[in-house]
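seq as requested:
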Amino acid sequence: MEKVITTAHGSGGSATGELIGEIFEKEFHDEMDDAAVVDAGARVALTTDSFVVTPQIYKGGDIGRLAVCGTVNDLLMRGSRPAYLTAGFILGEGVTFSFLKRVAHSMAETAKEAGVRIVAGDTKVVEGSPGKTPEIYINTAGCGLMDGWKDASGKTVSVDVSAAKAQPGDAIIVSGTLGDHHATILGARMDIDVSTESDNAPLVDMVGKLITSGVKVHSMRDITRGGLGTVLKELAGASGKIFLIRDESIPVRPAVRDFCGIMGLDPLYMGNEGKMICIVAREDEDRALEIIRGSVYGENAQVIGHVAGAAEEKSTQAQPGDVILRTAVGGERSIDVLRGEGLPRIC
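struct tokens:
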């Protein structure tokens, strides 16, 4: 039977990886990362993303804010300073001018917050479906400057971060509470008040301060579809290292934890739109945590674990690429990527 696309292929988990591996990597013959670093006379990071979230307005944000945040954060995770965005709009027949104006205004305000310019765009209109509320979809592309950061003395600062650069002993930091966006979107669809709001946010202040401080940053990744568990497993696999994580250190708001208990969800696999993992040299752990907590959107950051050293690798049965979650009572759980559907149209 011929394979077909399902909603699971948009989850950010194993099905998404299968789709990319079987089709796009083979045809395009390049790394299929969130952003690519290229030399265009100057080194720049390029990325593209599409946004189909439903509902399109929710507590704490809307599809316009989400589109800017998602693209800006992908550029940041390669160490670039986001500079320019493009925006393409696919408009369903029947979308009101007032709704589109709200979304465009939200994008403009978020771009201003992130310090980027929206410099080009496109619009297309598609036929509406009878009985269905008309929606808009947004595609963005972004350009970031790899040598765009300057320290307090005005000196240009750049970093070389990638998924493969985690080193033994490195500290693993999460920038804030998990599951806020996922719980907000699912709660809105089910008409449940989760007493939280989306975390959609541009992480420019946080990443800029880390880079210009001289902290030895080895890897960064925003925690979006697939959740923390998927991102940790991907980073461990890319670096060929064992990650050791403490369950009690993972930050989750009480309201989200209660929602997870009702819905049978695991915060490790819930989507986020304003959180990141930062892997830094062990000697910079305290300073990096202080910087992140002192940045916009980073007040709830936590060190959640570290990359195993040689002695720890010998004392565990884990293999390179494994992620081991240690519980408060001394148990261990092996963490894998998200399998199955997750929550469709979360971003």
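The chain has two domains: 7-147, 156-334.
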